[in-house]
Write a structure and sequence with these properties.
Blueprint lengths: L2 H11 L18 H12 L4 H7 L4 H17 L11 H14 L8 E11 L15 E2 L4 E10 L5 E9 L4 H7 L3 H6 L6 E3 L10 E2 L10 H27 L11 H21 L53 H13 L5 H13 L12
Parallel strand pairs: 1-5, 5-6
Antiparallel strand pairs: 1-3, 2-3, 3-4
Helix pairs in contact: 1-2, 2-4, 4-9, 8-10
Amino acid sequence: MSYPAFENLVNILRDDLRRVSANCRSGAPITAEIIVGMGIRWLAGEKYQSLVDIFDVSRTEHYKCRKDFISALLRNKTLGIKLPKCPEDWEDVRSGFARKSYLQLFHGCCGALDGFFQPMNKPTIGECNKPIGYHSGHYKSYGVNCQGACDSRLRFLFFGVVGAGTCHDSNALDTAAGLKEAIESLCLGLYFVGDAAYNLSERLLVPFTGSQREDPDKDAFNFYLSQLRIRIEMAFGRLVNKWRILKTKLECDLTRNAEIIMCCAILHNYVINADNIGADDTMEGEESDTMEGDDSATNDFIIRNAPSGMSYLPNIPEDFEEIEGTSQTRTAIIEDITDMNLRRPDHNIQRNAPAAANEPQIPDEYYHPT
């Protein structure tokens, strides 16, 4: 976070952080700058022992400051994470993803969706009826399931702590207030992209799994889908690397842990907006399979008379019944891939080959996406 961004954040939260009487140990007043600075450094992973020395406050006052900081962030409507509300906002998101898609193949994408598991200490009986429900056998830890959706610049369009650690992503999506409704309300030809943990639909495209991947066209579909789907993985990676408290088990009560996670997501968006971080500003270690020439193609597939001017796929039948687990949209994209004779690039096949050779071969019947 740049210093101008820090100053702006202080000004946004200042009214909610005013103190009537509170001083540092030296007698100097505890200002909004101290509270915000302490809160940011704590969420970035710094321990309270060093914070009380750096800011010259008592341990009790440190806990009070970070509580006030969390409350101020969550109350502030300016900083809240919001889904697009109008066609123009959705179009901004769609056009950003279209520029990331090779030959704008997925030119109707309006968001990348995935789940995020945050480890935490075991909740008590007083906090929930069934603490064991928060234990994930896959991650071998207690935790919560968070659902996130982002745009091409890695900003969260939606982020929520929606379920216990054992909750499957497809079930967690049903409890994500507002997100599922927003996806289902999209015009035909607009969609979100996710991994195979979600159920395929016209407005939520997922990759092919198992033996289906042996089809070259479907394998190519998976590759070009991953160019956009990886944005949410990158968003989670940036979230955890920036706010390193999330790299450890959260040690507060269940409600406070959820508030900490939401504050990190809010600050994640704030930093990208305030410092004008673009989608090409990748962090160290991030990779992209984006191929040269992604921005060179023009979108020749727009249906001009679609509702709100926003429907983008050319080959969807006018009259068809939407059936859960199928997607005419995905079929239309597969037809485009076939017509253009697109395949997974050789460099991607070669990069994945050594890892695949060393991995144990698991029969398809045991394959279960996570």
